[in-house]
Model the fold of this input.
Amino acid sequence: MTAPIRVLLVDDHAVMRAGFRMILDAEPDISIVGEAATGLEAVAAASTLRPDVICMDVQMPDLDGLEATRRIVADPAVRSAVVIVTTFDRDDYLFQALEAGASGFLLKNAGPEQLVEAVRVAAAGDALLAPAVTRRVIERFARGADAPTPPAGASGAAEASGTTGAAGAPRPAPDARVSRALASTDPVPGPGVRVELTERESEVLRLLADARSNVEIAAALYIGEATVKTHVSNVLQKLGVRDRVAAVVYAHRHGLA
Done:
């Protein structure tokens, strides 16, 4: 029997952690191994517990979730995948999360099935963006457009909430963050490069580009979730990319979205 996915919950609101625990504990393949209420607690717990996946809030006391993610990902002894789970639908948070090495970005208004899917996808070594941000941001990546700038006053708010560097230095501009984040991923075949996919794989890729989860793809195509995972794996292998985000970029570049 496969060992359950070990999850650490990080949020400064106990009620939110309790809600996540209730959702994830109901899944037979997921086990909650610990909780933390601050970024510093998260870093310490990650080092001690070595969870498979960390569900990480952004705005917290002591150390924000983005800096906590950087420290966790930078620790070679900790191989946890981090999924940022936040209330704030802000591009600057998304870009910083990507640069920090997060494996997913989910909004707290997502459904329970999306939280479960995000944990499973991250545990499998893939990346997942919330549907609400995928369409808006990935299209900009795919077309090579400049990164969207944060909302007016966002940089000041970020500094106030502790999203400057550990030493207080301001973060690089959003476009620089995005460039570095994308540079850290596998190359995506350019517009002139065509990859031969089966009809079913093409359908799966189109649905991925529409920000559908595996559960939603399975329902749309009337196939099992395990079959969807196989198709997604085949698509990534044929495209020569590491994760779903890069696959979506390919779909947009080639007019499949």
Residues 147 and 175 are 5 Å apart (CA to CA). The first helix runs from residue 14 to 25. Strands lie at 5-10, 30-36, 53-56, 81-86, 104-107, 128-129. The first strand starts at residue 5 and ends at 10.
